[in-house]
């Protein structure tokens, strides 16, 4: 009798959720894979130095709380989820505050500092991409137990899958750690990563995913950290890194075209943040920004994660004046602009 009584709220919750899912029939849920550009706080729960679950991170988030998002507020998947009418934020899969009822309409598996390459995730001891996929498989079982096979399978096939990853493979691995650069030319390494991306998307497809957005690289040579270390060019953007990003994005675009032909029923799109971000960096005032070469946090030149902390008196008072929050990650305002552009262009076909 006691067990039956306990089960009633869950049954009511499941029924209510089914009604919500029917309302958002075109995109009933959003699933996120990738790195710190989209990590909602999974790194909080693992042993790594790359965390952001402390102030001033999250100071402009709901309630002014640090969540593990590498920004002063929300990140692109949050804005995308809101635009699709799903929910205002996407929770992290490893966050113990949430359960399957909340995950049923979307969840983030991303891990800050990771990359396509397993060797990239080893650099800062974060979750490798293959493990993100294993966590997703585990989640599928939980969802089927919660919603039932038929409804869960429908959610999984109609959901929107967001991928944003790759910057760390170059800036934290290839150009910094001896290993890959001694075995691969830069173009060979790009092909290597492209192969991993293709295999990952194919596995997602085999697990039921049909609506997938593959994110490209930003103008990574213009990140404040890279500009700070580019002393010989008076702190201009590092042209080599930007060219690598553009070349890799072309390869990813080609991969999208290839997989759309090979995988029956897939709707794979390429979301490229490069141009809109470069536009903000080159013409900040056009978007209401004052600063694009330095970040809001601390000196804005090299700080991120634990170097960006509440005790630094130099941190700016208004993050909306800055394109970048820390030396590697955009502000909430920037994230909102990028997400809006992606929603109105690449993702528009999913409405």
TrEMBL record:
InterPro entries: GDSL, GDSL_lipolytic_enzyme, SGNH_hydro_sf, SGNH_plant_lipase-like
Any Pfam family: Lipase_GDSL
Gene3D superfamilies: SGNH hydrolase
Entry's Gene Ontology molecular function annotations: hydrolase activity, acting on ester bonds
Signal sequence, start to end: 1-25
UniProt keyword terms in alphabetical order: Signal
Similarity annotation: Belongs to the 'GDSL' lipolytic enzyme family.
Matches recorded under PANTHER family: GDSL ESTERASE/LIPASE EXL3, OS06G0636700 PROTEIN
Record-given protein name: GDSL esterase/lipase
Origin species: Liquidambar formosana (Formosan gum)
């Amino acid at each position: 009798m006691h067990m039956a009584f306990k089960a009633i709220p869950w049954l009511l919750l499941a029924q209510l959720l089914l009604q919500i899912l029917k309302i958002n029939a075109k995109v009933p849920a959003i699933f996120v894979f990738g790195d710190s550009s989209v990590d909602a706080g999974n790194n909080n729960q693992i042993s790594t130095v790359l965390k952001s679950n402390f102030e001033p991170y999250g100071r402009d988030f709901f309630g002014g709380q640090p969540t593990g998002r590498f920004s002063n507020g929300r990140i692109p998947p949050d804005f995308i989820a809101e635009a699709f009418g799903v929910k205002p934020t996407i929770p992290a899969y490893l966050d113990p505050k949430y359960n399957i009822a909340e995950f049923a309409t979307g969840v983030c598996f991303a891990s800050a500092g990771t990359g396509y390459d397993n060797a990239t995730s080893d650099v800062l001891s974060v979750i490798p991409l293959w493990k993100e996929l294993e966590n997703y498989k585990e989640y599928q079982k939980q969802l089927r137990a919660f919603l039932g096979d038929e409804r869960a399978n429908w959610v999984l096939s109609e959901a929107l899958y967001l991928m944003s990853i790759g910057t760390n493979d170059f800036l934290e691995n290839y150009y910094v750690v001896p290993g890959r650069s001694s075995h691969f030319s830069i173009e060979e390494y790009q092909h290597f990563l492209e192969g991993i991306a293709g295999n990952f998307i194919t596995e997602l497809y085999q697990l039921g995913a049909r609506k997938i957005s593959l994110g490209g690289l930003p103008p990574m040579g213009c990140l404040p950290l890279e500009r700070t270390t580019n002393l010989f060019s008076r702190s201009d953007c590092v042209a080599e890194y930007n060219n690598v990003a553009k070349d890799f994005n072309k390869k990813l675009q080609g991969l999208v075209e290839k997989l759309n032909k090979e995988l029956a029923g897939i709707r794979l799109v390429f979301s490229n943040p490069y141009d809109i971000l470069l536009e903000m960096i080159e013409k900040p005032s056009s978007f209401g920004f004052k600063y694009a070469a330095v970040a809001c946090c601390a000196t804005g030149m090299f700080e991120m994660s634990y170097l960006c902390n509440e005790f630094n008196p130099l941190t700016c008072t208004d993050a909306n004046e800055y394109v970048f929050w820390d030396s590697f990650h955009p502000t909430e305002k920037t994230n909102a602009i990028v997400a809006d552009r992606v929603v109105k262009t690449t993702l528009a076909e999913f409405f």
